[in-house]
Amino acid sequence: MSADDAARAGDLYPVLRPFAGVVVAPGEDPNELVVEALARTIDAGQLSRLEDPVTELRARIAAAADQSSSPLEAVRSPRNPVRDASRYEIELWQLPSRDRALLYLSVVDGLEPGQIGRVLGCSPWSARRGVTRSLRDLGSTPAGASTALGILGGRGEFLNPDELIDALEVALIPPPPAVTIGRPEVIDEPSAPSKPGWWRIIVTVVVIAAMLAVLILGSGVLSEDSGDQDPLNPPTAPLSGINAAPGPLDGDALVPMPFTPAAEG
User: Fold this and answer.
1) Topology (CATH level 3) of domain 3-172
2) How many other β-carbons are positioned within 10 Å of the β-carbon of residue 59?
3) Distance between CA atoms of residues 155 and 172, nearest Å
4) CA 9 vs CA 28, 139, 195, 214: distances in Å
5) What DSSP assignment string belongs to the chain?
6) How far apart (Å, rounded) are the C-alpha atoms in residues 146 and 133?
7) Which end of the chain is more exposed for a tag (fewer CB within 10 A), N or C?
8) What's the whole-number mean pLDDT along residues 186-195?
9) How far apart are CA 151 and CA 167, in angstroms?
């Protein structure tokens, strides 16, 4: 951060801090909103480049407060003006952050609806209507609202110049990269969705059908081969070659040979 940005931030802080004190969510530090808005703007370039730094920085503060704010339901007060600033201050916290910003810019800073619209990103008609609605809901006059908003904006501690510079320097330092020492822990990743149960049934049926088909075909082949055979007298393979001719030792094929006496010499 340059010395020029540090000086400009110190000049802008007293103007931005009361606005942040009004729009900040209950229980949060308004100084953090101011430091964050200044740090983001400086990180994008020098503050001197902004034509209207107050408007742009207030827009950042209002946007950040509106995102983190979770106000209670707005109280519908009586239409009589509120004279007790402390009671009005309590009811003011129950308004949404955007409505508090509308009231502050209108009744404290005295901005026109068009200027309010540039801060909050709305049309002049919406800004005028929002201010009227908020005052009506609280049952207050602009003078009473200005007093209560002044009290509310000043609540909390203000940073001195040195504290502001220190906070900005810390906010501008980028976070160190994450370093993993040793084996990183295993991160449970979402498991793939399990397949439906019907596919298991189909696979089981196909396997059983294949096994039955093999058994049926195997039994059919065996029955054809052994249909006309006598299990007690299994057939023998026919003899071929020299063993095919009947011989003297061939059992049923033995034929008596005629005896021829030999001639005497």
Assistant:
1) Butyryl-CoA Dehydrogenase, subunit A; domain 3 (1.20.140)
2) 17
3) 26
4) 21, 37, 61, 89
5) --HHHHHHHHHHHHHHHHHHHHHSPTTS-HHHHHHHHHHHHHHHS-GGG-SSHHHHHHHHHHHHHHHH--PPPPP---SSPP--HHHHHHHHHTS-HHHHHHHIIIIIS---HHHHHHHHT--HHHHHHHHHHHHHHHT--HHHHHHHHHHHHH-SPPPPHHHHHHHHHHHHSPPPPP---SSPPPP-PPPPPPPPTHHHHHHHHHHHHHHHHHHHHHHHHHHHHTSS--SSS---PPP-GGGGS--TT-GGG--PPPP-PPPP-
6) 16
7) C
8) 52
9) 25
d(CA 193, CA 64): 40
Domain boundaries, the chain: 3-172
**The token pair that represents 93 in the structure block:** 């916290």
The string of pLDDT tens digits covering residues 238-253 is 544 444 445 544 444 4
Sort residue 135 into left (φ over 0), alpha (ψ -120 to 50) or beta: alpha
User: Contact 24/30 with Cβ under 8 angstroms?
Assistant: yes
Q: Read off the tokens for 185.
A: 């822990």
* Rounded Cα–Cα distance for residues 203 and 209 (Å): 10
Q: How many angstroms separate the CA atoms of 130 and 98, rounded?
A: 9
Task: Check if the beta carbon of residue 22 is closer than 8 Å to that of residue 100.
Answer: yes
The two three-digit tokens of residue 143, written as one number: 């003078």
Instruction: List Cβ neighbours of 167 (8 Å cut-off, separation of 6 or more).
Output: 31, 35, 159
| pTM for this prediction | 0.61
